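@channel anyone free to eyeball this complex?
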Amino acid sequence: ATKPYDDDNIFAKILRGEIPSTKVYEDEWAFAFEDINPQAKLHILVIPKANYVSWDDFSARASDSEIAGFIRAVGHVAREHDLVEPGYRLLANVGHYAGQEVPHLHVHLFGRQPLGPMIA
Ligand code: 5GP
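replying in thread with the prediction:
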């Protein structure tokens, strides 16, 4: 089962404006900002504004509106950055095996370079 949401996680603090981030997009459902330790020429994190621990928690608990709003926001960020051609990658780590570090759902968006094989 998914752990309860921790209000003190670093992305919760970013959403509350308690620690700074480089914002690239924001709407009703989502907030997007640059990863502090980029793994590609472009590395953005897109997070829902509501509190979900992971993709698992989100897909199980979020309303249809939240899910639609968040997924549309991810697509919007990619289009806004002109990534659709030549392409980009989305990634969401869930839990221990995937090495999820921050317990607030985040979708990694990588682009601006060839991205190599899927599994690191
Ligand atoms: P995970 O391993 O949980 O999927 O990814 C966590 C990501 O958050 C990592 O890519 C890491 O560089 C990024 N990150 C961790 N702390 C901060 C922070 O304080 N600010 C920003 N912008 N990114 C962070």
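from a first look: The CA atoms of residues 99 and 117 lie 18 Å apart.
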